[in-house]
Design a protein that fits this description.
2 helices, 3-stranded antiparallel β-sheet
């Protein structure tokens, strides 16, 4: 194709490219709108912040907001679940710091299911939300210990000693010889025999003394009569 014929085509292509560049330059930049990258978390009371985890079951709790770029404040509303059209049971605001993070105060609600929704000024995307359960009765308790038995088996009563006519319960001292070593009774036969012999000897001696005295009296009388 002659060069003269190509010149009009080249001129048209250059004009089209220039128009396209102008259109691209005038289009808005494809950046996220303020707050679109943000997220809301439900945290149990006492959570050490910042903490990116979410706690779906709580008792006392607060909200943690993260990465709400270019915003200084967000608003939150709590609704009962399942979803419906009741008014919010509680609402509040969170002031964001220089890192676009922020936290609400600790709060409590009756046991049940809830949903928190976050909105902000200039919002263009969807609301940020979380569903959570409040359950202050779910803490495990210490199992009760087994109570001690109230009754016990009766113990064997101590043996009672009957005194054979002297009244019950009094122990009567033993009679007879004192036990000797080895379980037998001490031999008292000799002692008994000696006592008997002593008694017989004493009786004989007394008899002899009486006889001798009688003889002496009779002799004395005979002498007296003879002398008279």
């Amino acid at each position: 194709m002659p060069a003269q014929a190509l010149r009009p085509l080249l001129s048209a292509a250059v004009a089209g490219l220039a128009a396209g560049a102008i259109t691209l330059a005038g289009a808005p930049a494809a950046f996220a709108a303020p707050g679109d990258d943000g997220d809301i978390k439900v945290h149990r009371e006492g959570t050490v912040e910042p903490d990116q985890s979410n706690h779906p079951q709580v008792c006392r709790f607060h909200f943690a907001a993260f990465n709400f770029n270019d915003l200084t404040e967000i608003h939150w509303d709590i609704y009962n679940q399942p979803p419906g059209t009741p008014p919010a049971v509680r609402s509040g605001d969170i002031t964001l710091d220089d890192s676009f993070n922020g936290y609400s105060q600790d709060m409590s609600l009756p046991n049940g299911m809830y949903k928190v929704e976050v909105t902000w000024t200039g919002q263009s995307g969807a609301k940020k939300s979380k569903v959570f359960r409040v359950d202050c009765d779910g803490t495990p308790t210490t199992p009760p210990t087994t109570p001690p038995p109230t009754t016990y088996p009766p113990t064997t009563p101590p043996p009672t000693h009957h005194g054979g006519g002297h009244g019950g319960g009094h122990h009567k001292p033993p009679h007879g010889p004192v036990g000797a070593g080895g379980g037998g009774a001490a031999d008292t036969t000799g002692t008994t025999d000696d006592g008997s012999a002593f008694g017989v000897g004493s009786a004989l001696a007394a008899g002899l003394a009486g006889t001798a005295g009688l003889i002496l009296i009779r002799r004395s009388r005979r002498r007296h009569n003879g002398a008279a």
